[in-house]
Write a structure and sequence with these properties.
The complex is a heterodimer of chains A (about 260) and B (about 220).
Chain A (H helix, E strand, L loop, with lengths): L1 H18 L10 H16 L8 H14 L3 H23 L18 H16 L2 H10 L1 H8 L6 H30 L6 H32 L15 H21 L1
Helix pairs in contact in A: 1-8, 2-3, 2-6, 2-10, 3-6, 4-5, 7-8, 8-9
Chain B lengths: L3 E8 L9 E8 L4 E5 L6 H8 L7 E6 L2 E2 L11 E4 L12 H5 L3 H4 L3 H15 L15 H13 L5 E5 L7 H18 L2 E6 L11 E6 L2 E4 L3
Parallel strand pairs in B: 3-8, 3-9, 6-7, 7-8
Antiparallel strand pairs in B: 1-2, 1-4, 4-5, 9-10
Helix pairs in contact in B: 4-5
Classes of the chains: A mainly alpha (about 260), B alpha/beta (about 220).
């Protein structure tokens, strides 16, 4: 069991690291890209038909084609979302109307209406985060956040998300290494031993996180003289204009489908 | 006038019965290197934290250029650079460039000046240019140490406080750090305080040797 937990922790650290990369070569302004993707995410999450998901899906695939992250990386990021989608939509398959109002709505065999509702919900859960994920795969969270944190109202929140994105993988890897250290000294492995090991390792990690946070805080204070003084850098290129024009066209098509 | 002066400093961590620093007095002059040796738990790290104004002494005074350091904070931090023993504790920014640019971005209003400060500091510690956009967690331990050092050299502090800078480093990195110290003192006229368990690594540097044990400090000749 410890081995699976270690694998899970490594996977969490890997996905966060991968999505929060820094891409200084992004041709489109990351803030424009992120905002455009957010619009498609919202549109996809309110879609009432499969047709309405085609344009957000096309947009995401175009971004993924530009980012070229590789199929295995896309699969590793999307796997938990697919599992979540299947878990939430499978009960709809076993209904006659495509709605679950109570346990009595469920039946033993799948139905045509149930399948339609199942397919729509699964597609919505999978497709709606895809534009944002694709934009992060293309530009990387830290590229987006470097622009977002200069906005007056969002700055503080974005810095917090930045810290979490930078420190969560470290803490996950620390917990994985504590578990590995414990496993290497476990002579008679048993389920009880695994649970006890996990509980004490989590406790140790919480203590470590506290002392780690204290030291990082000291290191930040030691180098804090005042507010950031570097002004906002405005960069607007032909790539941005082309991107916005494409975005507007796709959004107009999406609006026509939704209406 | 000395750059920094400790006068009868006592410090005890909250909840602890023992004092980590006991009646420590020290005068730090510009353009000098001081090496504080001593066993683990002697109080070396605490001494550096007090000198950087991060811990407030229970008794005694810390003077920076003749005036109480406490009254000059946070502005005085621009002149004090503290390298932590574990570089992991210093690196909280997403990529190497942002880490080194942390203080310059507080000092300058133009990104161009920031970029120059970052490149100069990276060159000083011998960091390759392609490492600047790399996430900090993807660096080796030695590289992390160099990035942490570059992040304090980027604003050219007058007082460098280095906590166990040679720990877990290969001979190459040790030489590199000694060269940086030498250059900083000879060209910049800064004061450097190095805390290290033993004195082996500082060969070739002209230093004032001090020894610390159970929170007390004394010249090594005693």
């Amino acid at each position: 069991m410890t081995r699976h937990i270690r694998a899970f922790l490594s996977e969490v650290a890997y996905v966060i690291d991968f999505l929060s990369k820094y891409n200084p070569y992004s041709r489109v302004d990351p803030l424009v890209l992120f905002t455009g993707s957010l619009v498609f995410t919202v549109a996809a999450s309110f879609a009432r038909s499969l047709e309405a998901l085609v344009i957000p899906l096309f947009y995401s695939l175009a971004l993924l084609a530009a980012a070229k992250p590789g199929l295995s990386k896309i699969a590793r990021v999307m796997a938990p979302i697919l599992v979540l989608g299947l878990a939430s939509s499978t009960p709809l398959l076993f209904t006659s109307t495509g709605n679950v109002e109570s346990l009595a709505s469920l039946q033993a065999s799948p139905s045509g209406e149930g399948f339609k509702a199942f397919a729509l919900l699964l597609a919505r859960v999978v497709v709606s985060p895809l534009p944002l994920i694709a934009s992060l795969m293309y530009a990387g969270w830290f590229t987006v956040s470097s622009r977002l944190k200069r906005l007056p109202l969002l700055g503080g929140v974005v810095r917090l998300v930045d810290l979490m994105a930078a420190l969560t993988p470290r803490i996950a890897r620390y917990l994985a290494s504590v578990l590995l250290g414990r496993e290497s000294r476990t002579v008679k492995p048993s389920l009880l031993q695994s649970w006890r090991g996990l509980a004490s390792s989590i406790g140790e990690t919480i203590l470590y996180s506290g002392s780690y946070a204290e030291k990082v805080h000291l290191a930040i204070t030691a180098r804090s003289i005042g507010e950031m003084r570097v002004g906002q850098e405005i960069r607007f290129t032909w790539a941005d204009i082309a991107y916005i024009a494409t975005l507007a066209t796709l959004l107009a098509l999406e609006a026509m489908v939704l209406v | 006038m000395p750059l920094l002066e400790l006068q009868g400093v006592w410090y005890k961590y909250p909840g602890s019965l023992d004092y980590a620093l006991r009646d420590v007095s020290l005068v730090v002059e510009e353009a000098k290197v001081y090496v504080v040796a001593g066993p683990n738990g002697a109080g070396k790290t605490t001494l550096l934290l007090v000198m950087a104004g991060l811990l407030e002494p229970e008794k005694g005074r810390v003077l920076f250029r003749g005036k109480p350091l406490k009254e000059q904070l946070p502005g005085a931090r621009r002149h004090i650079g503290l390298l932590f023993q574990n570089p992991e504790h210093m690196l909280f920014n997403p990529v190497v460039y942002d880490e080194i640019a942390y203080v310059p971005r507080q000092l300058y209003t133009s990104e161009e000046y920031v970029r120059r400060a970052v490149e100069e500091a990276a060159e000083m510690v011998g960091l390759k240019h392609e490492l600047l956009m790399r996430p900090t967690h993807m660096l080796s331990y030695g590289e992390k140490k160099l990035v942490a050092l570059a992040s304090i050299l980027s604003y050219k502090p007058r007082l460098l406080l280095l906590d166990e800078p040679y720990t877990n480093l290969s001979r190459d990195y040790v030489e590199k750090i000694n060269n940086i110290i030498r250059r900083h003192v000879e060209e910049g006229g800064s004061a450097v305080i190095v805390c290290h368990e033993c004195l082996d690594s500082i060969r070739g540097l002209h230093v004032e040797r001090l020894y610390m044990e159970s929170g007390r400090i004394r010249p090594l000749s005693q």
